[in-house]
Amino acid sequence: MVTMNDTPSRDIINHDASEALAERIRRAEAEGSPLRIIGGDTKAFYGREVEGEALSTREHRGITEYDPVELIVSVRAGTPLRELESVLAANGQMLPCEPPHFGEEATVGGMIATGLSGPRRPWAGSVRDFVLGTRIITRQGSEQRFGGQVMKNVAGYDLSRLMVGAQGTLGLITEVSMKVLPLPAATRSLHLEMSLQEALEKLAEWGREPLPITAAAWLEGALHLRLEGGPSSVEATARRLGGDELLDGFWEALREQQLAFFGAESAHPLWRLSLPHHTPALELPGVSRESDVLYDWAGTQRWARSDASPEEIRAIASQAGGHATRWAGPGGAPQEAPFTPLAPVVEKYHRNLKTQLDPQGIFNPGRLYAAF
Questions:
Q1: What is the CA radius of gyration of the chain?
Q2: Dihedral, CA atoms, 237, 243, 249, 251, nearest 10 degrees?
Q3: Mean pLDDT by 10 residues, the chain (372 residues)
Q4: In the chain, where do the E strands start and end?
Q5: Where is the FAD-binding PCMH-type domain (predicted)?
Q6: Among 104, 187, 216, 267, which is least packed by CB within 10 angstroms?
Q7: Do residues 36 and 55 lie in contact, with contact meaning Cβ atoms separated by under 8 Å?
Q8: Max CA separation in the chain (angstroms)
């Protein structure tokens, strides 16, 4: 087992800044002054703009505990994400949720706060699925631990997971314990020319079989697949499915939104639709070209450029059982109303939770919704 006193790499910086962070939060609570929590600031576009004094977690960094045998790592929130991934890779392991970085300065805290996952998400799970526990500084400036380091430890487990995707609106995440997994023994990526409808049918068919697929995306008339697992299984599946070898770097470029699709000049806003599995192709107003859509996560995450109104896009997504987010993208500016409005009952629970944990609204006020 590796601890903070037995650093896994000489390049890793370990520094506990929790007391300084707690003191700043205590002062903000006493003054009723809002705080804008930032780590690497690479995902500032995701959500609404926050007005408040910047509170940086970058000095609070380092791996505090790592047990490669038990597949568990505990790391401070300000730790660069690439630094953590490098340590894991040196031990033949990875973050299975494949979180996007959107910049070299991305931190572990930003990964947890946004809860964004990469192409492997439908097969491996989301960021939330691998969180075992967290340490959080509350509005009173006290550091509390929720959850633990084993899946069966459920004391405070739900509250720990609740911090994933809350965007720092419920408290300051200072440390997280996560489950990690071994790197795949073999990997191959395929490019198969086919229509969108054929791709959706094939994915539904293959989804009923134990194939080693860990990523599937359709773009510009072709289905892109990633196969991972044992060498014999990967090779046998690649021979069966056919297609051409996919260029190296495609999945990272998709995860980091560096494909030409995301950088294409367009006057139309970009929408991210999260939909149930096996949702058929949707007729979206304002989308007239194949080049305006990209299907990721085997079709459950869809990107589309459309000039239709937010109400139209969100109504279509809602009728299909999902939701739609207006996406600014890496380097973009925060938007006024990026997320689907909450249903009245759900909004009530959100308000109650925010009131209980942050009654003065000092933690990233308005980051998710204007009212809280």
A1: 21
A2: -60
A3: 50 90 98 97 96 97 97 98 98 98 98 98 96 96 83 55 95 97 98 96 95 97 97 97 93 97 86 96 87 94 95 97 95 92 95 94 96 86
A4: 2-3, 35-38, 53-56, 63-67, 72-76, 93-94, 131-137, 143-147, 172-179, 181-182, 186-193, 213-219, 222-229, 244-245, 270-274, 293-296, 301-305, 323-327
A5: 4-183
A6: 267
A7: yes
A8: 65
